[in-house]
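Run log, item B.
One chain of 97 residues. Sequence copied directly from the ordering sheet:
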Amino acid sequence: MKHITVVAIFQAKPGKEAELKKALISLVAPTRKETGCINYDLHTSPEDPAKFLFYENWTSKAALDAHLQNDHIKALLPRVDELAVGFPEIKIWEKIG
């Protein structure tokens, strides 16, 4: 079975950096308890404090899909327009080596 890696990049709107950071940090603890979550790590850019990156690994696409349906993720979605410049850039990867 192939693990799924997700890289998601958020860019905060000017003046919304602290709010977006708080909202994203609030996702970490509940997500790490989800079935199929291998790791769920939030990073910030040392060059751009308005840029945040999630690096996630999941046991399967089904586990990732279930994660996206959880209440804590759904609660953030309406706030993305308020806090971020556009929707986050999300890329899915499969480990091959």
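Observations after the first pass:
- The chain has a mean pLDDT of 95.
- The domain at 4-94 is CATH 3.30.70.100 (Alpha-Beta Plaits).
Flagged for discussion on Thursday.
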